[in-house]
Amino acid sequence: MDQQKSRLKRRYQEARLGKEERDDYVRKFNCELLKKRLHKECDRQLEFNKEKQRFVEEIFKQDEEESRRRLEETNLIDKMTEQEKEREEKRAAMLQAISALHKAKIQEMDLRQKEEEQSNLEWFQAQTESTWLFMEIADLMDEKEQTN
Predict the structure, then answer these.
(1) N or C, where is the chain less crowded by C-beta within 10 Å?
(2) Phi and psi (nearest 5°) for 18?
């Protein structure tokens, strides 16, 4: 996952993508993270359900006292699973926050780039106007000298 993240980051930095491509990059990155997390969670949940089913079958085979003890263990496992689920939800929220921050940084970069482009355009226009005025003045001076 880290290698893929690094590869995507390098590709992004090297290509200096446009705004739409950067948005696509962020969406793809987030989708890949979510897909992997969902796949992992499904596998974990499936394994947990299988283990729980085997565990319940074992309980019925034992005597009442053993069954009560196992049931308490199951409850403890359920509590631990719930805690794990809460931790995963917090982690998912953190990843979303990181993603939002990443997107905000990209938007900030876009804004800076647009401001720089606008500044460059204004400078170019001022230079063009200055050159034009200089040439007009030079033409007027030439005409004045020719008339004298």
Answers:
(1) C
(2) -75, 175
Say how many CA atoms lie within 13 Å of 39 toward its Cβ: 6
Euclidean distance between the first and final Cα of the chain, in Å?
82
Longest CA–CA separation in the chain, Å: 126
Q: How far is CA 86 from each of CA 2, 10, 45, 48, 128, rounded to the nearest angstrom?
A: 24, 33, 14, 16, 62
CA torsion, points 9, 15, 17, 23, in degrees to nearest 10? -30
- What residues in the chain have per-residue pLDDT under 70? 1, 8, 10-22, 59-60, 62-63, 148
Residues ≥6 apart with Cβ < 8 Å to 5:
29
Chain segment 92-118, per-residue pLDDT in tens: 999 999 999 999 999 999 999 999 999
> Which whole-number Å values give the CA distances from 80 to 10, 48, 51, 90, 132, in the listed order?
39, 12, 14, 15, 77
> Which amino acid, residue 76?
L
